[in-house]
Inverse folding.
């Protein structure tokens, strides 16, 4: 798991929450990193590779972004660049790390017929319908959507599925549609699809 702009203690608390909600026979591991720092992110991804050992990488969910206000003409250019480093450069770096492992998975004799290597990115309606008070996040979502479409076109023939999961609302336990269970179920359904399946 990769995060930015949160404290290590909050990260560790989140990891404990995930582990406590997971069945005993499922291993949950975590790596703390500022995903806006490309060098540190690459190091963290290599650590993930080492921890995986002989376990094949089959799915990544990229959910790194700064969610906060950015007032037009007042928001510093340097902060826009930081947002892009996290949401776009971080996504690109993670995809570049994952693709060789995904392709090894799809060409393996034992996994070629059953593997479903998938790279998911969470997003919202901002990629198509920007909101001025959130213009920096809107820019990042649009750039992520564009990059993911390029990756999907490039790697679909090779059996790797790149998809954007658009969550049109705030995720909350009491939300009728955008609750964690529904979002997780939809992500699982997309993961199980073929790259050639038509998205709904």
């Amino acid at each position: 798991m990769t995060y930015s702009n949160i404290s290590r203690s909050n990260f560790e608390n989140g990891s404990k929450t995930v582990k406590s909600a997971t069945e005993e026979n499922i291993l949950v591991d975590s790596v703390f990193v500022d995903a806006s720092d490309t060098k540190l992110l690459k190091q963290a991804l290599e650590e993930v590779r080492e921890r995986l050992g002989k376990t094949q990488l089959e799915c990544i969910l990229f959910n790194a972004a700064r969610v906060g206000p950015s007032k037009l003409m007042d928001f510093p250019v340097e902060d826009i660049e930081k947002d892009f480093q996290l949401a776009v450069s971080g996504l690109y770096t993670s995809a570049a790390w994952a693709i060789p492992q995904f392709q090894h998975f799809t060409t393996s004799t034992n996994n070629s017929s059953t593997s479903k290597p998938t790279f998911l990115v969470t997003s919202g309606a901002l990629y198509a319908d920007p909101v001025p008070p959130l213009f920096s996040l809107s820019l990042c979502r649009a750039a992520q959507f564009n990059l993911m479409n390029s990756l999907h076109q490039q790697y679909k023939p090779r059996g790797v599925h790149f998809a954007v999961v658009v969550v049109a609302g705030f995720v909350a336990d009491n939300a009728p549609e955008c609750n964690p269970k529904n979002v997780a179920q939809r992500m699982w359904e997309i993961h199980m699809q073929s790259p050639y399946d038509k998205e709904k």
Observations:
- The longest strand covers residues 118-123.
